[in-house]
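[job 4471] stage=fold_predict status=RUNNING
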Amino acid sequence: MLDTSQDEPQALPSVAEVPLARAAVPPAPLAPEGRGCLFALSQPPLMIFLGVIGALLLFAAVHDLYLL
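[job 4471] inference complete, writing structure tokens
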């Protein structure tokens, strides 16, 4: 059978117990390759490529719906 007894909640460490070396370290700055997806989508060659692919899909869909 499952043990349904409740354990006592553990207390969180106080501020005095947190080492200062770990608490005072500032976050590292973002690397150039860490800019994310929106930066990649802002590049003109990628947007031209995606535009051409989207246009081809649109033309194929219009052809299938209205001309076949």
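[job 4471] summary: The helical segments are 20-23, 37-41, 44-67.
[job 4471] exit 0
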